[in-house]
Amino acid sequence: MKKATYHGIRDIRIEEVPEPAPGRGEVKVKIRYCGICGSDLHEYLHGPFPRSTFGHEACGTIAAVGPDVTEYVPGERVCTVFPGAFAEYIACPAERLIRIPQSMDWKRAAVLEPLSGAAYAIDRGRVMPEETVFIAGAGTVGLMFLLGLKAMGVHTVYMTDLLENRRRKAEELGATQVWNPKQVKSPAKVKELTQGRGVDVAIEAVGVEATLKDCLASAMYRGRVIVQGIFTERPQIHMLGFVTRETTMIGTSSIYPPLALQWLDTGKTLPESIITDIIPLADIAESGFAALTGSNQTAIKILVEP
Ligand SMILES: [Zn+2]
User: Fold this and answer.
1) How does pLDDT run across 5-51, given as a tens digit for each residue?
2) Which domains are seen in the chain, by residue range?
3) 143 CA distance to ligand 1 middle (Å)
4) How far apart are CA 23 and CA 9, in angstroms?
5) Residues with beta carbon < 5 A to ion ligand 1?
């Protein structure tokens, strides 16, 4: 079968490898789509994580189950939250599967994992419907937060992004107000919009110093800052402000699929609307990774179809 493997910085190759056989406790899944995640791009640009997660946002149909797997049967639709899914098949530990409704649209299933990341963070940050939220970044992570917050009934969500197509998408998906943080100073704008108070919750969805600072300075006294961006550099933070404003900062990288599935159940959340391209596996390096990291970025979420 064909598989895209990570060989190093900006080096992804399509290889012919044997089909995986499911071992004890594993399930073999025929991949329908695997989304390219921000963490995949991070590895592509900066080198591998200690435990690589390359190609972990996939969905597909169970082709076979290994010994001791009793809770799944071949033919079921699932999401696989396990690296190595830029491939025709994957052998995935059963506990890394998410059971999805069998009628679920494949594109929706393909973005369930990032939506589950937002679900986890919103749950851990205890965001309430009556609270005001600022999200720095309108890429996949930021937009998933927006969709989750909307599903929870949060009315006021301000967002920023440098790219116009992402700002437009945020507006389309219901953000209260969206601006370019290069042109408008976010903390001042947020103060103006909240009668000088600041937002209850600020969400960092990029992973750079400027957006983290915007979040820390936009959150109210005793506010919360949720951080899900992946940082390459070590940011310089104004710790005195952090202390005197009694900010709570929460780092999140886990997922909470039950809440994401609940949002989808209401029918009001359409996370697949952030998918901008579906590309064949053979084109993953050029049309996938190079396109998402190049200077002319019009894509938001790209799905790879083996
Ligand atoms: Zn991901």
Assistant:
1) 999 999 999 999 999 999 999 999 999 999 999 999 999 999 999 99
2) 2-110+270-305 (3.90.180.10), 118-251 (3.40.50.720)
3) 13
4) 31
5) 37, 57
